[in-house]
Amino acid sequence: MSEKFQENVTVLKQQCIGKDIYDMTIQTKHIAGHAKAGQFVSLYSNDASKLLPRPISLCGIDAEAGTLRLVYRVTGEGTGTEEFSRLKAGDTIRVLGPLGNGFTVEPGKKAFLIGGGIGIPPMLELAKSIKAAGTCEFVSVMGYRDAQTFLLDEFKEQGYVATEDGSVGAKGNVLDAMKEYKLNADVIYACGPTPMLRALKAYAAEQGMTCYISMEERMACGIGACLACVCDSKEKDAHSNVKNKRICKEGPVFLAEEVDL
Question: Cβ(195)–Cβ(187) under 8 Å?
Answer without folding.
Answer: no
